UniProtKB/TrEMBL annotation:
It comes from the Bacteria. It comes from Pseudomonas flexibilis. One of its GO terms (cellular component) is cytosol. Gene3D superfamilies: P-loop containing nucleotide triphosphate hydrolases (3.40.50.300). It holds the Pfam family ParA. This is Cobyrinic acid a,c-diamide synthase.
Amino acid sequence: MGSLHPVQVIAVTGGKGGVGKTSVSVNLALALADLGRRVMLLDADLGLANVDVMLGLTPKRNLADVIEGECELRDVILQGPGGIRIVPASSGAANMVRLTSQQHAGLIQAFSDISDSIDVLIIDTAAGIGDGVISFVRAAQEVLLVVTDEPTSITDAYALVKLLNRDYGLSRFRVLANMTHTPEEGRNLYAKLTKVTERFLDVALQYVGAIPADELVRKSVQKQRAVYEAYPRSKCAQAYRAVAQKVDSWPLPANPRGHLEFFVERLVNRPTTGSSA
């Protein structure tokens, strides 16, 4: 089997809808691919698969087919722009938590088969803080929290951090401000969030940067293309480039838990309360 290849698993989440998680996931994936990373994007927004819609792709099969044993993981992978590969969502994958041991083993096998060919797995999670979101975020190794300048965004992000910290022992979160209007806005959002987390929780938040609000994002959505690819010189694309460089410098997992099969193990095994998962 060769040596285990460490894969950076990043869950993009936000606690609420409308903060631009899918846009962040897709554009960050493209920016990392530009740095020479082999990137796979897992659309885990199970009720509303939108990565494929955003990029004008039409998947014939999805993760549910893999779990059912009807096809291999490589049969569902879509080729996206910039060499990124996309695993489309399956609306039934809420059943991930209720897999038979055979399905469970099959899923782990499927991901370990591809782990040597990717460096980064980005997971676009659903909105809210439902079970599906928690499973994916808890299993990932880096949590990228997308926030915007609206009161509910900060309160929902805080609720998510609190839940993940108190119930699942997660203590490190990365914060990305999206759709900002001034350079200060992102820092201020980060400050607001850290003010509440520092008072009530034992967590470390790190500020990753801000993606400016950009009219070209809407235009690229209409073209069913990612802004990073459609308008590579836009302010927005430049910001993604800067964020990707930061993400690329995050330490790779040194322990075996940083390998894809362990990610899937954690995804499908609900932790028992009181465990140090």
